[in-house]
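Lab notebook: predicted structure, single chain.

Context: the supervisor wants predicted structures on file for every construct in the current expression panel, including those that have not yet been purified. This is the next one on the list. No modifications to the sequence; it matches the entry in the shared construct table.
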Amino acid sequence: MNCTRCGSELQPAGAYCPICGAPRREIDRLILETRNAAEKAVEASVVAFDRASKELQPAVERAVAAFRTAGEEVGKALRPLADTTVRAVNDVANSLRPAAHRTATVARQMVHRTAVVVGPAVAKAAEKTEAAARRVKEAARKLG
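Prediction complete. Output recorded below exactly as produced.
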């Protein structure tokens, strides 16, 4: 706590300010008066704010109503554009769907044809690899 007269720091148990000699009771009284004045100022501010908010409330409500009406008008003006955009997106999706289906079908056919053509070669390579692996194992057994 600081002295209200000179601002110096007060000792917790001291009866007087060590710098200016102001009695502690006087300091406590000044602190109490300051606290009471601050509370009254806050209370007056709350009352004034409450009064101002009540006076402003009708203007705020009119502004909100005006914005709501303007928003509805803007929404009505933009609705045809939004509908046109949605239709255009749907048209594009509908026109691309058959092409995507055909692309997927051709890809499946190419995979199947590749498997048919490459399958025998892969099987033959697998047989040769197995035979080579057997020969390596037999040679390793003979050495071991």
